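Worked example 3 (structure in, sequence out).
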């Protein structure tokens, strides 16, 4: 059973899926849904036409906490496409200490390889299960030597069939067998900002060392534990690594998505007298060829970025989209502005999403045997106080709900052991008692909420 939603979704279906987790922001959802559907449409075209259909990159503009990152996070769980979320503020111009912009494509490559391996495991589940079953039964019932008589062969086949049935019913799970653990490996993909050439050298050295000591350590484990260990072994035995890498590259080049958050942090405002950080414009210039289309060397091979979809987002409080260099602006032709959240939107965020904040707090305290009950008026009051706090101080959108909810639940959560087995009603009176004085004083609001 696939853990993710199909890639062949219509724009309406994509919006419907996002509606379960992100309240409002119809324009942003609509623009992204069409861009994602165009990825699918392009793949159906002739190879000659595919080359000329370029992705329409998106720039999302909106205050913090209005749902930009949440939309990206949910996209990554719904689409069977290579996806990576990065923050523009983490990158620096070549020559400065920090991550270079090409590392986002290298991260995408690792993500794609992992996705392809997962897909192959799902498609070949029967082969993997058969491999594991044979390995375990052979340990419990060693094969007959060559030249065994017909009678012995028939007896062995009958015993093997009985063992298979017991294995399928889970009756062998408690038995212990000795298996060879896979030789330990070092994953160079997580070694920070290592250039691909250096990573390949490291990988080669590791393979040579692994070749000298091919045999892993032997260990006695239960059949239940052996199933998991041998499933990993089956995956590496059954699939050709080079073929997986080729599939991963194809997947990136046809449907890869990079979400660049905080792109406003690398914009240099036009009225800025001192260019405090000379690497900001440098990052934009380094980003330009990747967004335009270039070849990037990764651990799995050379990746062409021509048809990767780039979605960028920023609050643009201190700068404007026009403060980005013109060439980069031109590479994000679709602009969508996200709405600020009023008290009605905040109320819906509290109550409507599949795993809303109210459901989360109820579930957390249910662990301690406390049954939290929220009055309708109390929920409206929380939304109103959140909107008011956002107006009086910095607007942090839906994140204000987390702060206010924590303030209200704090004492109940601390003394949860005393309330075990009880119903605790969160009413409007309790909300006012906890928040009225805090929100009335602007200074207090600034520091506490």
């Amino acid at each position: 059973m696939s853990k993710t939603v199909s890639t062949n979704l219509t724009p309406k279906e994509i919006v419907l899926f996002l509606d379960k987790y992100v309240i409002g922001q119809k324009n942003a959802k609509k623009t992204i849904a069409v861009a994602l559907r165009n990825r699918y449409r392009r793949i159906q075209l002739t190879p000659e036409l595919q080359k000329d259909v370029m992705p329409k990159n998106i720039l999302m503009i909106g205050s913090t906490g209005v749902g930009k990152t949440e939309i990206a996070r949910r996209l990554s769980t719904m689409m069977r496409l290579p996806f990576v979320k990065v923050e523009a503020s983490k990158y620096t111009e070549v020559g400065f200490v920090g991550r270079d912009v090409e590392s986002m494509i290298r991260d995408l490559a690792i993500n794609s390889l992992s996705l392809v391996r997962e897909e192959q495991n799902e498609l070949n589940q029967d082969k993997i299960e058969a491999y594991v079953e044979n390995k375990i039964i052979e340990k419990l019932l060693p094969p007959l030597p060559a030249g065994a008589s017909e009678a012995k062969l028939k007896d062995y086949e009958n015993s093997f069939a009985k063992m298979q049935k017991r294995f399928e019913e889970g009756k062998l799970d408690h038995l212990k067998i000795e298996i060879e653990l896979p030789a330990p490996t070092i994953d160079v993909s997580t070694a920070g900002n290592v250039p691909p050439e250096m990573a390949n050298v490291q990988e080669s050295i590791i393979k040579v060392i692994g070749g000298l000591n091919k045999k892993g350590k032997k260990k006695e484990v239960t059949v239940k534990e052996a199933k998991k260990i041998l499933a990993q072994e089956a995956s590496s035995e059954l699939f050709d690594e080079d073929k997986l890498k080729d599939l991963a590259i194809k997947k990136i080049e046809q449907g890869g998505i990079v979400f660049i958050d905080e792109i406003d942090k690398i914009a240099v405002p036009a009225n800025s007298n001192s260019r405090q950080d000379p690497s900001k414009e440098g990052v934009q210039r380094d980003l330009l060829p990747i967004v335009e289309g270039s070849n990037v060397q990764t651990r799995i091979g050379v990746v062409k970025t021509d048809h990767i979809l780039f979605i960028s987002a920023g609050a643009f409080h201190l700068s404007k989209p026009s403060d980005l260099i013109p060439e980069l602006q031109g590479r994000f032709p679709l602009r969508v502005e996200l709405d600020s959240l009023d008290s009605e939107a905040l109320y819906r965020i509290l109550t409507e999403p599949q795993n809303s904040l109210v459901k989360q707090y109820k579930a957390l305290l249910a662990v301690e045997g406390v049954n939290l009950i929220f009055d309708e008026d109390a929920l409206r009051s929380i939304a109103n106080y959140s909107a008011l706090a956002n107006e009086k101080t910095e607007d942090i959108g839906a994140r204000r709900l987390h702060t206010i909810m924590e303030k209200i639940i704090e004492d109940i959560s601390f003394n949860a052991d005393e309330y075990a087995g009880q119903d605790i009603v969160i009413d409007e009176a309790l909300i006012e008692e906890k928040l009225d004085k805090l929100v009335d004083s602007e200074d207090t609001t600034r520091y506490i909420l």
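Notes: The CA atoms of residues 248 and 349 lie 37 Å apart. The two ends are 44 Å apart (CA to CA).
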